[in-house]
Amino acid sequence: MTVLHVACLPFPTYQGTQAALDSMLRASSELGRPVHLLTYARGACELEAPYPIDRVPDFPRVQSLRSGPSLGKLALDVWCIGEIRRLSARLRPEAVVAHHIEAALASLAANTGPVYYVAHTSLERELPMYFPRLLESPMAATARQVETRVCRLAAGVAAVSPSLSTLLGKTATYLPVPWRRSIGAAMTPGDARKTLGLGTTGPLCLYAGNLDPYQGWEDLLDALLALRRRHPSARLLIATESDPVPARLAAIRAGLGNAVDFRRLAGERARRLAHAAADFTWVPRRAVGGLPIKMLDAFSRGLPVVATERATAGLPIDEACVSVRNDDPRALAKAAHRVLIDKALADRLRSAGLDYLDRHHRAARFDAAMQRLLGRPSRRLSAHDAPPRSIGLAHPAR
Fold first, then answer.
1. Looking at domain 189-359, which of 3.40.50.10750, 1.20.1250.20, 3.40.50.2000, 2.60.120.10 is its CATH number?
2. Among 24, 65, 149, 310, which has the minimal tally of Cβ within 10 Å of its Cβ?
3. What is the pLDDT of residue 46?
């Protein structure tokens, strides 16, 4: 029977949650699981999806693709309630799987059958970051109440990272996001930099993601300043679909106006070029819980990763990245220096990242976890596919 997935967000876009959602639905479709998606009317691009997509009416017309709350999105979420009822009457789905809190609220309000909540972020930890400091505490309290109520009313709860499942409580299970190795023609760093219009010499650090407050991208400017004391020609490439103006102004204020480059991260070619051009990628994180898809993407392309402990999200990353203290630009710089001067370390990280994906983000592992969430019988997992016995952080930087 069909499972109706609901995501109250623009789709598709090049942001992490949307990429994770597409990967989940593709994996289900390829494994013969009928799935159907309901989402907002607009997206950033066309998508040849192997699964059917329905969309809410395009009113009000919300042009922005960025994360975070808005009145326009609230109106679209109300539309979702009626569309869930309409689709449920037509499709007779076995269950509704709601991605993010907005979809969970709409699905529960529609009241068409069992709702399974898949959390991609912690509302309590992330929502307050979009508001002035004075409102952070009341917004966190409100978010906590909403999150608790959704988890209580849902037929099942899953989270895309172990740290997020811990935050949500013992009723939440871990749902690994399926992610494959990137397939594409190899490109040298020099050729990629020329194509992007970047200098071909000197270390190039990458940040590939949005510039929302929960990311903690601001620490990368201080990290670059510290790194340039040892590597004066080091530069930072910020590849993003967010408005780059705030980050550009912050770089100028830090005296890094000529050391930070910005490129759009629109489409697979842009992603391939950005990762091929870089020596490593930084993955910071200000809010606990969410899974940085940018980290999985870097693993899939064989690019060394330097991540904060918070960004590793409790995953069994083993030797796949260099993990550093949270909110510590000097630690980010020190780890980057290690990767730049130690070719053997960089090579080990490239190999370990690919191996990590093969072991822990296989489509079969995702499918087994999804079937358990839905209360379906699933095939017996092999030792290769079985969930890890323990969850630990990546090995810390020394």
1. 3.40.50.2000
2. 149
3. 82
